[in-house]
Give the backbone structure.
Amino acid sequence: MNTSRRHLLGALAISGTAIGATRLAAAAPASLELQALKKDTDIACLYHCDFGDPNRFSQMLTNMNNHLSVYDFDTMRVKLVMVVHGAGLKFFLADRSGTPWEKDTIDEDLFKRAEGLAKFGVEAYLCKITYQRNKIDLGKTRDASFLKFVPSGVATVAELQSKGYAYLKSG
């Protein structure tokens, strides 16, 4: 292999790595401040997810789907969000190694169902305090645009309620 070809291949490898790193950095969920949370629809509801029981999480997803179905899945009429903290966070991690839930087995269909709800405007607000207290790197979070980091799960619950969101807890 001649020198110029070797340089070209090396440059391509480096640029590919840089593009990949940029893509990973861009893929991280956005962070929201509490003041940015708004109620844009007449019907808005938060589902509080601070539990790690997969059956209960599945029930919550079913409840959310049923809730949306009553409004014909119309994002102009209804907005649903999940506020996630504590053990509920495990359902949104791509990598659970080094977390309190690293030995838990989680059915991948649960996350796929949550992603399916996102097509109808559902967002999941993930508590940064839970990450900090459990020493979990934010980079362990799944790559999905419906996931958003918030400063505190419980403060987000209160903020959304003060802005007119109804409160539901499944289970």
